[in-house]
Write a structure and sequence with these properties.
The complex is a heterodimer.
Chain A (H helix, E strand, L loop, with lengths): L2 H31 L6 H7 L1 H22 L6 H35 L2 H41 L1
Helix pairs in contact in A: 1-2, 1-3, 3-4, 4-5
Chain B lengths: L2 H24 L12 H6 L2 H28 L6 H35 L4 H41 L1
The chains are: A mainly alpha, B mainly alpha.
Chain lengths: 154, 161
């Protein structure tokens, strides 16, 4: 397995993580501390909660990429990692779905439909990731089964 | 394999395709210089538009291959040479897209810069698309190799049994 391509993907995952972390540390407090954000403040505070499953999912994808590097991708460990990614994505999706009524309220008060759109995009995107992770999980599981059957025969 | 999740992902791919196609056909109407142009002038007078439409073929081919790949998964035929080939095609399509975007960026930076002053938006969008395409190409390459090794394991298995 060429190390280069997984290294690029690892770098991308780290880049995502650093960007969101920087948002959490620098951008969100900036918005929370000013008075101008008004109704948005609970929303900005609430965005810290889904950040936790997001970082867990990123960590699990890093782990998965290192399994690929070590030629250990067809193992129960990677099935486990994919399961965590699936749960994290579902959690993020649910958290934003729960917050959606408040997002509607804020967007209505502020007359900013874009906020609702962003909320829907986040819910939708994490749902797609959850489904893809579920499919991958089953695929890797069946590959693991084939492989273990193989090992038993030999 | 659960059919519903596969169908959901296939629907998402179809929506992405329709969305991209609609956006590409509709966007030229928003350009300021096309305000008084006829339909023919809008679509056939702009070499850059033709260039972008040509580049988009690679995008739609990749979407079709992803759709096909999901179909293989649904029919429990994912560990086959056909799906490895689909992933390889996706990889090539993403690389072709990167090359096309590099060309477009060059055009914007060298030619368009002399005519228009504000090219930042176009450059930024191109860079974002390039980044996404590179990530997709790399991911497809990794999946391709992983899948190839799974296919090898399986064929070994089939030989023994």
């Amino acid at each position: 397995m060429g190390k280069g391509s997984t290294l690029i993907l690892k770098g991308v995952v780290c880049l995502f993580g650093i960007t969101v972390l920087a948002m959490c540390i620098f951008v969100l407090p900036l918005g929370i501390s000013t008075d101008r954000t008004g109704y948005y403040r609970p929303l900005l505070l609430g965005m810290y909660v889904p950040a936790i499953p997001f970082f867990i999912a990123l960590y699990q994808s890093l782990k998965l990429l290192s399994y690929i590097d070590k030629n250990k991708v067809f193992s129960d460990a990677s099935v486990e990692a994919l399961k965590y990614i699936k749960y994290c994505a579902v959690t993020i999706s649910l958290m934003y779905a729960v917050g959606m009524p408040y997002i509607f309220y804020v967007a209505d008060r502020d007359d900013a439909p874009g906020v609702v759109l962003i909320g829907f995009i986040i819910i939708f995107a994490s749902f797609v990731i959850a489904t893809a992770a579920a499919v991958f999980q089953k695929l890797v599981k069946s590959a693991v089964d084939i492989k273990s059957e193989n090992d038993l025969t030999v | 394999m659960k059919k519903s999740s596969i169908i959901f992902l296939q629907v998402v791919i179809v929506f992405i395709g329709i969305g991209a196609l609609a956006l590409m056909l509709w966007e030229p109407h928003l350009e300021g210089r096309n305000a008084n142009a006829t339909l023919f002038q809008i679509y056939f007078n702009d070499p850059f538009l033709a260039y972008v439409y040509t580049a988009s073929i690679a995008f739609f081919v990749a979407l079709y291959q992803a759709f096909k790949l999901l179909g293989y998964i649904g029919r429990n035929k994912v560990f086959s040479q056909a799906s490895v080939k689909a992933l390889r095609t996706i990889k090539y399509c993403a690389i072709i897209l990167v090359v096309f975007i590099v060309g477009a960026e060059g055009y914007i930076n060298i030619v368009q810069r002399r005519i228009e002053e504000d090219i930042a938006g176009g450059v930024m969008m191109g860079l974002a698309m390039m980044f996404i395409s590179i990530v997709v190409a790399t991911a497809a390459a990794v999946f391709e190799r992983t899948l190839q090794s799974a296919v090898d394991i399986k064929s070994e298995n089939d030989l023994i049994v």
